[in-house]
Amino acid sequence: MGKDKLRKFKENETFTCLVQPATSEVLGHDHPLKGHWNSDFFHNDKPVVVELGCGKGEYTIDLALRNPDFNYIGVDIKGARLWKGAKFAEENRLPNVGFLRTRIEFIESMFAPGEVSEIWITFADPQIGREKKRLTSPLFMARYRNFLKKGGIVHLKTDSGYLHAYSKAMAKQNGLEILADAVDIYGADRERLYASQIMSVCGKDAVDALFQVQTFYEQQYLAQGIPITYLAFIADHEGPYVSPDWEPDRWER
Ligand SMILES: C[S@@+](CC[C@H](N)C(=O)[O-])C[C@H]1O[C@@H](n2cnc3c(N)ncnc32)[C@H](O)[C@@H]1O
Fold first, then answer.
1. CA of 76 to the centre of ligand 1 (A)
2. In CA terms, which of 83, 104, 153, 154 is 20 to 30 Å from 115?
3. Which residues sit with their C-beta closer than 6 Å to ligand 1?
4. Number of folded domains in the chain?
């Protein structure tokens, strides 16, 4: 392991905003913070929003700075990436930011029923041909349902037409209420987003933030001229989530 990575890992251990459970604490066990993020971590009762696969944490931090009445937790498995966001949150003493280093597969060990209001999935790997690893698959949706509030929203921002189309088909197949569906947010769909359901549910500031808050990966895709898509839906669903009837052959990204 490189010296820089080692230095970041060491510094990570000093950050109070960064929770790094051992695998033994989350594999088949409930972590002590499960059900207690408000009381024991944030020390407030503001709604909790989670970003899955947050990388360096730009989105988590930017949303937290804009929305002081919400708590934000960025989740990723890569410690050297999380270091960047955690360092910023630590140095700036951001009271509504936390980072969690764990595999998303263990997320149910970290959050209790109704503990989370919204989930952001930003520029996740589309996992082409590997549905079970896809963050909007029925398997992951069932995990999220176990800790999302009733009416909890899943936001998906991606450069992947494949992931966007799959997730939309999954939402439709399971009768989930779609609040926004845009295949080119900075292009033709921009104005439509201001007329979509997400505007009435989350407000204009939230729609503005879609364009103004950009992740590390998003900036790179934009520089290459790749369209950025956005899908938002309510996760509520009775019974098992099922895979969509969907024809993926024509999708490459
Ligand atoms: C393509 S990057 C996007 C990072 C960030 N959202 C952005 O847009 O800049 C995907 C991130 O998801 C994380 N990730 C992928 N699968 C994961 C999993 N199963 N558990 C935790 N993190 C995961 C990776 O470590 C990586 O940082």
1. 6
2. 83
3. 53-55, 76-78, 81, 103-105, 122-125, 215-218
4. 1
In a domain, residue 244? The reply is no
- Angle (CA) 105 108 110, round 5°: 105
Q: d(Cα 209, Cα 123) in Å, to the nearest integer?
A: 16
Tens digit of pLDDT per residue, the chain (253 long)? 899 999 999 999 999 999 999 999 999 999 999 999 999 999 999 999 999 999 999 999 999 999 999 999 999 999 999 999 999 999 999 999 999 999 999 999 999 999 999 999 999 999 998 999 999 999 999 999 999 999 999 999 999 999 999 999 999 999 999 999 999 999 999 999 999 999 999 999 999 999 999 999 999 999 999 999 999 999 999 999 999 987 776 666 5
- Cα 167 to ligand 1 centroid, rounded to whole Å: 17
> Is residue 58 assigned to a domain?
yes
Annotated catalytic residues are: 125
Report in angstroms the alpha-carbon separations of 113 from 55, 90, 146, 201. Answer: 25, 28, 5, 22
Residue nearest to atom 12 of ligand 1 (CA): 53
